[in-house]
Amino acid sequence: MNLGLFIDGNEVALDLPSCDEAMKNRVLVLVEENYLHTVTGIGVEPFIENGRTMIPLRALADAFGFDVEWEQSEAKITLTKDSRIIIMHIGSQDMLVDGDSVSLEGVSPMIRNNVTFLPVRQLAETLGIKVGWDSESRTATFTQE
User: Fold this and answer.
1) What is the CATH number of the domain that holds 112?
2) Backbone CA torsion sign across 20, 57, 91, 71
3) CA-CA distance, 78 to 20, in Å (whole number)?
4) What is the distance between the alpha carbons of residues 67 and 76, in angstroms, rounded to a whole number?
5) Among the listed residues 26, 22, 19, 20, the one whose alpha carbon sits nearest the alpha carbon of residue 138
6) What is the pLDDT of residues 36-58, one digit of tens each?
7) Taking 80 as the threshold, does the pLDDT of residue 3 lie above it?
8) What pLDDT band is residue 19 in, cutting at 50, 70 and 90?
9) Chain centroid to CA 81
10) For residue 69, which of 3, 21, 84, 139 sits 20 to 30 Å off, Cα-Cα?
Protein backbone atom coordinates (compact mmCIF):
# COMPACT_ATOMS: atom_id res chain seq x y z
CA MET A 1 0.00 0.00 0.00
CA ASN A 2 1.34 3.44 -0.89
CA LEU A 3 0.70 6.27 1.54
CA GLY A 4 2.02 9.84 1.79
CA LEU A 5 3.41 11.30 5.01
CA PHE A 6 4.85 14.73 5.76
CA ILE A 7 8.15 14.88 7.66
CA ASP A 8 9.72 18.28 8.31
CA GLY A 9 7.37 19.78 5.73
CA ASN A 10 8.37 17.36 2.99
CA GLU A 11 6.07 14.66 1.63
CA VAL A 12 7.55 11.18 1.95
CA ALA A 13 5.94 8.31 0.06
CA LEU A 14 5.54 5.20 2.17
CA ASP A 15 5.33 1.74 0.67
CA LEU A 16 3.72 -0.12 3.55
CA PRO A 17 3.94 -3.91 3.83
CA SER A 18 0.91 -6.15 4.24
CA CYS A 19 -0.21 -6.78 7.82
CA ASP A 20 1.16 -10.35 7.74
CA GLU A 21 4.53 -9.22 6.39
CA ALA A 22 4.77 -6.40 8.92
CA MET A 23 4.00 -8.71 11.85
CA LYS A 24 6.55 -11.28 10.67
CA ASN A 25 9.40 -8.77 10.32
CA ARG A 26 8.73 -6.12 12.95
CA VAL A 27 10.91 -5.64 16.00
CA LEU A 28 9.64 -3.71 19.00
CA VAL A 29 12.09 -2.06 21.38
CA LEU A 30 11.07 -1.27 24.94
CA VAL A 31 13.42 0.97 26.97
CA GLU A 32 12.51 1.52 30.61
CA GLU A 33 8.87 0.60 29.85
CA ASN A 34 8.67 3.09 26.94
CA TYR A 35 8.44 1.92 23.35
CA LEU A 36 11.00 3.25 20.91
CA HIS A 37 8.94 5.04 18.28
CA THR A 38 9.91 4.87 14.63
CA VAL A 39 7.94 5.45 11.45
CA THR A 40 7.36 2.21 9.56
CA GLY A 41 8.20 2.24 5.88
CA ILE A 42 10.87 4.96 5.74
CA GLY A 43 13.82 2.75 6.67
CA VAL A 44 14.43 3.70 10.29
CA GLU A 45 12.63 0.88 12.04
CA PRO A 46 14.59 -1.66 14.14
CA PHE A 47 15.44 -4.95 12.44
CA ILE A 48 17.26 -8.23 13.09
CA GLU A 49 20.67 -8.82 11.45
CA ASN A 50 22.44 -12.14 12.10
CA GLY A 51 20.31 -12.67 15.21
CA ARG A 52 21.09 -9.21 16.62
CA THR A 53 18.66 -6.32 17.09
CA MET A 54 19.78 -3.24 15.16
CA ILE A 55 18.35 0.17 16.03
CA PRO A 56 19.00 3.62 14.58
CA LEU A 57 21.93 5.46 16.15
CA ARG A 58 19.86 8.55 16.98
CA ALA A 59 17.15 6.48 18.68
CA LEU A 60 19.80 4.58 20.66
CA ALA A 61 21.51 7.80 21.74
CA ASP A 62 18.23 9.35 22.86
CA ALA A 63 17.00 6.20 24.62
CA PHE A 64 20.23 5.57 26.56
CA GLY A 65 21.40 9.18 27.01
CA PHE A 66 24.54 9.01 24.85
CA ASP A 67 26.35 11.99 23.41
CA VAL A 68 27.29 11.14 19.81
CA GLU A 69 30.20 12.20 17.63
CA TRP A 70 30.56 11.13 13.98
CA GLU A 71 33.80 11.32 12.01
CA GLN A 72 32.91 10.86 8.35
CA SER A 73 36.50 10.37 7.13
CA GLU A 74 36.98 7.34 9.41
CA ALA A 75 33.33 6.14 9.50
CA LYS A 76 33.82 6.42 13.27
CA ILE A 77 31.10 6.67 15.91
CA THR A 78 31.97 7.81 19.43
CA LEU A 79 29.33 7.36 22.12
CA THR A 80 29.87 9.02 25.49
CA LYS A 81 27.81 8.62 28.63
CA ASP A 82 29.06 9.76 32.02
CA SER A 83 32.67 8.49 32.10
CA ARG A 84 32.11 5.71 29.50
CA ILE A 85 33.50 6.10 25.98
CA ILE A 86 32.53 3.63 23.26
CA ILE A 87 34.13 3.83 19.82
CA MET A 88 32.86 1.91 16.80
CA HIS A 89 33.43 1.96 13.06
CA ILE A 90 30.93 1.21 10.31
CA GLY A 91 31.54 -2.34 9.07
CA SER A 92 33.80 -3.38 11.97
CA GLN A 93 32.82 -5.98 14.57
CA ASP A 94 35.36 -4.54 17.01
CA MET A 95 34.59 -1.68 19.36
CA LEU A 96 36.58 0.05 22.06
CA VAL A 97 34.98 0.43 25.47
CA ASP A 98 37.01 2.75 27.67
CA GLY A 99 40.09 1.72 25.65
CA ASP A 100 39.49 -2.03 25.86
CA SER A 101 38.72 -4.00 22.69
CA VAL A 102 35.36 -5.83 22.62
CA SER A 103 33.92 -7.91 19.76
CA LEU A 104 30.34 -7.32 18.61
CA GLU A 105 29.97 -11.05 17.81
CA GLY A 106 28.71 -11.49 14.28
CA VAL A 107 27.36 -8.05 13.42
CA SER A 108 28.75 -4.57 12.98
CA PRO A 109 27.44 -1.00 12.82
CA MET A 110 26.00 -0.34 9.37
CA ILE A 111 24.36 2.27 7.22
CA ARG A 112 21.01 1.30 5.72
CA ASN A 113 18.73 3.74 3.87
CA ASN A 114 21.15 6.54 4.81
CA VAL A 115 20.61 5.79 8.51
CA THR A 116 23.30 4.46 10.87
CA PHE A 117 22.22 1.35 12.77
CA LEU A 118 23.96 -0.14 15.80
CA PRO A 119 23.71 -3.57 17.41
CA VAL A 120 22.13 -2.68 20.72
CA ARG A 121 22.54 -5.73 23.01
CA GLN A 122 26.27 -5.50 23.73
CA LEU A 123 26.14 -1.72 24.00
CA ALA A 124 23.39 -1.99 26.60
CA GLU A 125 25.18 -4.75 28.52
CA THR A 126 28.39 -2.68 28.51
CA LEU A 127 26.45 0.03 30.35
CA GLY A 128 24.98 -2.42 32.87
CA ILE A 129 21.54 -2.40 31.27
CA LYS A 130 19.52 -5.61 31.54
CA VAL A 131 18.51 -7.01 28.15
CA GLY A 132 15.58 -9.31 27.38
CA TRP A 133 14.07 -10.79 24.21
CA ASP A 134 10.52 -12.10 23.75
CA SER A 135 10.53 -14.14 20.53
CA GLU A 136 6.74 -14.44 20.41
CA SER A 137 6.12 -10.68 20.38
CA ARG A 138 9.54 -9.92 18.81
CA THR A 139 10.25 -7.39 21.56
CA ALA A 140 13.69 -6.39 22.87
CA THR A 141 13.47 -5.02 26.42
CA PHE A 142 16.08 -2.84 28.13
CA THR A 143 15.95 -1.88 31.82
CA GLN A 144 18.45 -0.42 34.30
CA GLU A 145 19.69 -3.00 36.79
Assistant:
1) 3.30.457.10
2) positive
3) 38
4) 14
5) 26
6) 766 554 557 788 888 888 888 88
7) no
8) low
9) 17
10) 139
